[in-house]
Amino acid sequence: MQYHDSIKQAEEKMHAAIKQLQLWHIPATPINYTVSYHYLNQNSKSLNNTIEKQLATGKKLDNFFLSEVYHQFILKQSGFRSELIDDLDEVLDDLHANSKQSSVCTAHLINQLDNNIANLQSTNKNDVLRAIKGIRQSSEHFKLEQEKLAEQLRLSQRSTDALRTELDEVKKEVYLDSLTGLYNRKAMSKHLDTWLSNDPTKQVAAIVVNIDHFSQMNERFGPLLSDVLLAKIAKKISSYVGESGLPVRSAGDEFLILLPDVERNIAGEIAEKIRQGVEKLRFVSSKSGTRLPPMTLSIGVSDYNVATSANAIIKQTRALINDISQTLTNHVNIASS
């Protein structure tokens, strides 16, 4: 609702936005409603083009897609914002390093002044005493100033820690999927760029995980329960990924795992463990006590050079599943050499 809208206009737009969501067969969550409202009012040409392109290809809109659109076009999470986060990280690291170096240099200077007191030589005893007294006074004054500086640095450090905490929260908003806590495509592209800059020859194994018959489950039990299932399955999948691996939510009911410097056959073994682990899960509705059908996964495994784009990795590995998904589910398909 825009501020210049009358009450009647606002109500009309609210009803229209809800109706549009019904036409899309999407629940009226706050994010979905906001996207629908902006779409109908044509507040962003890019937003409308993205939605219309998705519809033109015959693909359904879902909560995941509208969440991506919301963050990209309404929250304005642009590349500039990502670069700003990196710059802030670098500034904070530099500030910490400079503060530490300043303390070391100051301590060294004080030691030098103290040591030089014993090295003063003069034939006049009074001159020597005055020099010693003057140096000692300078040293004591400098120590007092150092203590003040140290206190300022402690205060600055507390401020930096608070800023870093806030920055971590912003990073979560920019790079993490809000439902599952896994990384999003923006984070995936960033990691690929980092790996490429560090080692252009690096290979990365890719595991695409698709939940079998998830759309039917969503239609049968509703989006709220489906979201709970997605989050639980995502957590299970993530448990098989090591510290160096990158678990990504790449689509509504699809996940991608990137494993740098892991051979394809090893990635296939990990994929099989993931498939078996999810197959053993049992889900019960906490509200009704109804036992839900077992969930299974179809998984594709391949490997790429890190120079390959994020979209190409997803598309090519996804094809390993799509090519046989009509006849086979609950399986792992490893790309041939």
The gist of it:
The chain is of the alpha+beta class and 337 residues long.
List keywords for this structure.
10% strand; 337 residues; single chain; 5-stranded mixed β-sheet; 11 helices; alpha+beta; elongated; Alpha-Beta Plaits; 3 domains
Text of the CATH class of the largest domain: Alpha Beta
The CATH homologous superfamily of the largest domain corresponds to Reverse transcriptase/Diguanylate cyclase domain
Q: Biggest sheet: strands, sense, closure?
A: 5 strands, mixed
Number of helices: 11
| CATH third-level topology of the largest domain | Alpha-Beta Plaits
Give me the strand/helix succession.
HHHHHHHEHHEEHEHE
Beta percentage is 5-15%
* Biggest sheet strand line-up: 2-3-1-4-5
User: How many beta strands in the DSSP annotation?
Assistant: 5
Tell me the span between the first and last alpha carbons.
55 Å
- Secondary-structure-based class equals alpha+beta
Would you give an account of this structure?
The protein is an alpha+beta fold. The protein folds into 3 domains: 7-74, no CATH class; 79-175; 185-334, Alpha-Beta Plaits. Helix content is 63%, strand content 10%. The protein has 11 helices and 5 strands; from the N terminus they run H-H-H-H-H-H-H-E-H-H-E-E-H-E-H-E. A 5-stranded mixed sheet has the order 2-3-1-4-5, sandwiched between helices. Strand 4, helix 11 and strand 5 (331-334) form a beta-alpha-beta unit. The chain starts with 6 loop residues before the first helix and ends with a strand. The mean pLDDT is 83.
